Phytanoyl-CoA dioxygenase family protein
Amino acid sequence: MSDILERFDRDGYAVFRHVIDPELVREAAGHVDWLQHRHPDLRPEQLGHTLLRDDPFWLRLVSDDRLLDIAQTFIGPDIALFASHYISKPPYSGQAVLWHQDAAFWPLDPMRVVTLWLAVDHSTPENGCVRLIPGSHRGAIQAMRSNTAVDNVLGEEIAAEVDESAAIDMVLAPGDVEVHHPNIVHGSSANTSPRRRCGLTIRYIPTSTRITADEQPYPSAFHLRGEPGVNAYQPWPHFDQARHYRFTGAEGRAEAGRG
């Protein structure tokens, strides 16, 4: 793992192939469809963290040991969830994500956090895969400016000029995971292709990182592994077939909660 950490320290990102099995990826894809049907008022790029506090499948997915083992490589054994967000770009109309750094937005102290980006669909330049600037995490957090002239997810972008010629495409297959630093400059183009592009962002923190938002516990703060540390956490939801997405092993979580 030392070579992975060295490359991550140099480049600000890493890619892990074939992390999640096809069966669980199919369940995640079905979960996205279920969420869109349940929340027709939300764009599919905006299936965000406030939805997951009462969603047993979402918690089952982000607490998968294969993902936690990757997170542990970067932040250690005491792990909590800070936030998670499906960005599902529909064919022909999926919104761009303009150049930004995650650390510019997050209420965390210190800014010790790692993002795992789980590919639910094939992610390619044609359908708007993640693009990032290797090594840009070593620079400062840059000022942001509003941009609503372009249809986009954040409504903001880095105010300074970004050298797009330095960007590389994160081409991923379903089940692959891309990991990136909170300071790295990244974004993605609009999806003008006939294929959906969906990925799940998962923001893991060591439990020594404090969530400083006014709302406590934070809507998506869940203790996942090791010592609980400094934050208050949401209780794990119990599966209820009348109101939750059904998934493999769901019934076993009806009474056990985290299980």
